Fold this sequence. Notes:
It is a single chain. This protein is mostly helical. It has one domain. 74% of the residues lie in helices and 0% in strands. Helix 2 runs antiparallel to helix 6 and helix 7 runs antiparallel to helix 11. The protein is globular and about 55 Å long. The C terminus is likely disordered.
Amino acid sequence: MSKLQLNTFTLGIVAVIILGIIIGLEYIFPHGSGGTLLLTLTFWIALVQGTVAVAAAGDATNSKWIGPLKKELLAFHPLILFMAFLFLFLGLKMDVFPWFENQNRWLNTPFFLTRNFVLLVISYFLARFYAKATLRNSPNKGNLAVLYLFFFVFSESLVAFDWVMSLEYPWVSTLFGGIFFMESFYAGLAIAALIAAYYVKNGIEDQTVMTKVLRDTATFTFGFSLAWAGLFYSQFLVIWYGNLPEETSYLVRRMHYSPYDILFYLSIFLLFIAPFVGLISKRAKVIPNWVRMIALVVLAGVFIERILFILPDASMNVFSAILETVLMGFLLLLFFVNRERVMGYAGTERSDR
Length: 353
């Protein structure tokens, strides 16, 4: 991966180029571009905010297992700002929302764009301040971690309510925000598991320590599969027993109509059954290739569920969605490979050892 080593200026230029390519794709493939852009936004903001949230939660609870992975997870925080500027382009795709022609005090284009953009920018700066504080082992790192987590929950809840739930306006679900920020944290754990598995597999860092980190990360991933199932069932039960057309229509479309029903049951398998069964064994939790596969399954599950949330209400362009996913994955890899430059600790002793 030495060929991917870039200085911070070059890395920023690459990020701007990728931003431009994604925006260009929305013009080249206008049919279904609104749904495609929403998919890219909702999935990747979950990943980049979730990785920082995992590190912040570790600091807030004084957890030692997160130490060897903290700087790697925090290296993705500049992408929160990237996603904020990409979100602004959604302003040209507002006709994807059913309330666009009949706007109100809350759901109107200027307020919609402003509140979400500002919140993402605040989340970025809080993530940056927290990253610097924890890198220097500052006494206020715990306070900044808690503050970031607060805005993380608020931001991901707005992603759920504003970006996705309003596609079904006037349908509402009070648990929708909880599902989104919990899944974002779940995705962050999956990224942490991928990094830990990579380090153990390639003999990077202290192997005794990294094997324990891999086990702990896999254990948390296993636990969040149960948490996801519980929250999912809570929302399902509340909607279903109400048996009101304006509530149940959301589930009926996704459970009983093809191809949405396939995505519905596939997301349950990927986010609950596979990680629960796959990581229930103690032995499985310390096998790098197995943990890596389960982590990829979880990320695929979050991606599939985002499609399930959006596709019934907004069409997507398959080619554009694939290309945008590849571009964002490449950008994520670049930030991981160049994490020392991003975090500014090249050539210094790592404080978590």
